[in-house]
Hints:
The protein has 608 residues and is α/β, with parallel strands linked by helices. The longest helix is centred in the last third of the chain and has 18 residues, at 465-482. It is globular and about 80 Å long. The protein has a five-stranded mixed sheet with strand order 12-11-15-13-14. Strands 2-1-3-4 form a four-stranded mixed sheet, covered by helices on one side. The chain has a four-stranded parallel sheet with strand order 9-8-7-10, sandwiched between helices. The protein has five domains: 11-115, Glutaredoxin (3-Layer(aba) Sandwich); 137-348, Rossmann fold (3-Layer(aba) Sandwich), CATH 3.40.50; 357-440, Ubiquitin-like (UB roll); 445-534, NADH-ubiquinone oxidoreductase 51kDa subunit, iron-sulphur binding domain (de novo design (two linked rop proteins), Up-down Bundle), CATH 1.20.1440.230; 543-604, Alpha-Beta Plaits, CATH 3.30.70. The chain is 38% helix and 15% strand. It binds flavin mononucleotide, iron/sulfur cluster (SF4) (2 copies) and FE2/S2 (inorganic) cluster.
Amino acid sequence: xxxxxxxxxxxxxxxxxxxxxxxxxxxxxxxxxxxxxxxxxxxxxxxxxxxxxxxxxxxxxxxxxxxxxxxxxxxxxxxxxxxxxxxxxxxxxxxxxxxxxxxxxxxxxxxxxxxxxxxxxxxxxxxxxxxxxxxxxxxxxxxxxxxxxxxxxxxxxxxxxxxxxxxxxxxxxxxxxxxxxxxxxxxxxxxxxxxxxxxxxxxxxxxxxxxxxxxxxxxxxxxxxxxxxxxxxxxxxxxxxxxxxxxxxxxxxxxxxxxxxxxxxxxxxxxxxxxxxxxxxxxxxxxxxxxxxxxxxxxxxxxxxxxxxxxxxxxxxxxxxxxxxxxxxxxxxxxxxxxxxxxxxxxxxxxxxxxxxxxxxxxxxxxxxxxxxxxxxxxxxxxxxxxxxxxxxxxxxxxxxxxxxxxxxxxxxxxxxxxxxxxxxxxxxxxxxxxxxxxxxxxxxxxxxxxxxxxxxxxxxxxxxxxxxxxxxxxxxxxxxxxxxxxxxxxxxxxxxxxxxxxxxxxxxxxxxxxxxxxxxxxxxxxxxxxxxxxxxxxxxxxxxxxxxxxxxxxxxxxxxxxxxxxxxxxxxxxxxxxxxxxxxxxxxxxxxxxxxxxxxxxxxxxx
Length: 608
Ligand SMILES: Cc1cc2nc3c(=O)[nH]c(=O)nc-3n(C[C@H](O)[C@H](O)[C@H](O)COP(=O)(O)O)c2cc1C
Ligand code: SF4
Ligand code: SF4
Ligand code: FES
């Protein structure tokens, strides 16, 4: 497995992940197909056309890969189809315009694998995505899929499988990094049936799309992992919990389950082994807290999705009070590779306590946004500046937020931190499920903390008072600070509240909710002080503390700012630089974003 076998036959892989679909990639597929079919005898070797899951570079989409030459085209339009057919498919010529520009080297590359974005990645969980048609089980099998299942069922005992997973060092990819093999061992040793396995595909973090991409692009890898896990712990029923908004994930996982039944990988007497397993999909309603293990189980049971106290572990009494193994999408997708290639191989990748790779959705103020998979232990600097290609527009890096809404903001001084479960924890953040949001000098860190606390206060289920009331109280203080009404004692009060919320909340939501506040106070206290003492927002974000002015010397009179202004607040007299009417300005920042000459200056708040 983790095979990279390129077909000898000409194959065109057209990305039809959610990002590319939104930019008409399916129409491109249809047009190209029509063109190939209409060519008849004109074309000696007809290419095979396949739709695939997300290649990770959605921002450059729609993307197309042509094999075996491995030509990678980006931002393809329907109007490019004829040229791709005539030049590349018929004559083997490369269309320079459509090649990927590697920001790091400034050069166009023929194959995306030559770019810094891809070269530094290692794909295990994402091994097949972008290479196979997720709706075609044969594609998965051709790349080694279901080989691990056969090995598990016919060459290994359940205990041997659990030992292998334990030895591999695999830790759960859904947030807490709990050792997967140990969790399975606990569920296996309870002699109470039925037992259940669950795949957590809730993925409620704003900006995250790792699990969605795996469910959409390689659903069989999850199903194969779940069958192996179920066999190991003695479960005969599995659920894939997918958030309702993920329509394509639901469609592709449903299709994969149906095809797996059709090939005898699911159902009764799997492949003649005597082992039975049924898997079904449950659609989650979209509440962030339903990603928490016990809330998720309550939701599957048809109860309100509220967490419970975990003095009894779910491996002992989980779904309907029975032993249950719940793992994240990415965790399950790693399992077949571990069984196939062995624990020794897997544990040779990563750091001492964090083995293997981790998938991240790299977003925010970074040149190459997208889905990446890196060996544990690479530094934040490598991810942001080598893979991500640095910060756009020549701006300065300020912070990176890892771990989803209740993760923390890590400053520039810690950019050489290795990315693993323990180092991120130590820095006051966490791995979480893999959201990574890059921020530059134009982000206000007080406002960032306020944004996450607002999200968490709305998503708290309200069951316990410290979380329900504590987060709301912290949010009110942050809103005051952002509005210029902060008091000097507010920082101390925030720290005290954070401590109480962390200590006294029932589930992980409340326990980790203070992280954005604590890390921004720890690493960006000067920004809090500027808001509180000087009534100034240094980043020029908080509306009540900010006004803008156009620097008359830097303004080149291009008029771009005036075109972008939604309030009609920018005007100019003939042959003069542009000016902002502060009575009309709503401080949206659109002009500042748009100006290529950095002529929009941030000023303090306007009095009166
Ligand atoms: C508020 C909250 C939301 C969570 N959301 C998710 C989620 O969307 N997906 C996920 O896999 N784990 C989520 N988790 C973590 C799960 O509770 C659980 O630890 C995880 O799914 C276990 O799988 P793993 O061991 O493979 O990581 C969440 C936890 C909390 C506290
Ligand atoms: S900590 Fe918050 S989200 Fe968790 S149970 Fe308590 S109120 Fe609900
Ligand atoms: S900040 Fe927004 S409203 Fe104000 S001048 Fe600029 S674009 Fe117009
Ligand atoms: S959806 Fe096509 S690259 Fe992500």
